[in-house]
Amino acid sequence: MDPESAKASPTSHTYFSQRMRLHYLDWGNAGAPPMLLVHGNRDHCHNWDWVAQALRDEYHIIAPDFRGHGDSAWVYGAAYSHSEYVYDLAQLIHQQELAPVTIIAHSLGGSVALRYAGVYPENVKKMVVIEGTGGPPAELEQRPVHERMREWIDHTRKASGRQPKRYDTLEDAYTRMHEANSHLREDQARHLTIHGSNQNEDGSYSWKFDNYTHVMNPFGVNREQSRELWSRIDKPVLLVSGSESWFAQESREDLLPYFQNAQQVQINDAGHWLHHDQLDEFLMITREFLASA
Question: How far is CA 218 from CA 11, 111, 134, 271, in A?
């Protein structure tokens, strides 16, 4: 990170959810209003470091690692599903007494946070959701149960034989990170690589996330049920997307009618990780939204 962003550092903590040891960062300022920053799939809590650095004087910021991500424990003998992620979020908010909490969430984290807010609307103050209203393809929900189960079994079996990708050097891992998102500045890509990888015993490097997070659970809350949960959220919601993201390129219906109080905005020259690609604009939009009545 650059010298300006190095002015403050978070502290690492753990909490327990379904007997699993999960990790989160606490950026201090405990007397301020609480804010949760929730990362996306195969990301980690340090994806929010630039946002947290900018907002830490105004909020008490907590940034968790989902199970199977970052420095949280991996799941053994069970699948990764939204229900478990929602439980992890519920446990953190409950144990740290964060409600009512402001939430900023990205992608998978946005989907999880919206479901949490639909279950516990009284625990949420405001939400900023970055490309988090997606979900499994509609065709998947319409397929026969036996097909979904067979596919899940096949994918899980394949995941069991899949070894984490190894990079000879941290520089190689950084190169892969930068290739995956060309919008990232060099310092951003290096920062995310350092915090998102572990060194193996043989000296190589691998990403921290569990490969089993690639496997999509065959069952869960469907689109209709998700929208039913969204309709229960009675606090303001800001839906943000990037103009160059795959999310924006797909044909999507207007989702605002499914919310009681939501608005949406698109940020130009930004991809799926728009809070990295156009940080200053994202912060400006977010601050305006959070300050509004």
Answer: 37, 17, 16, 28
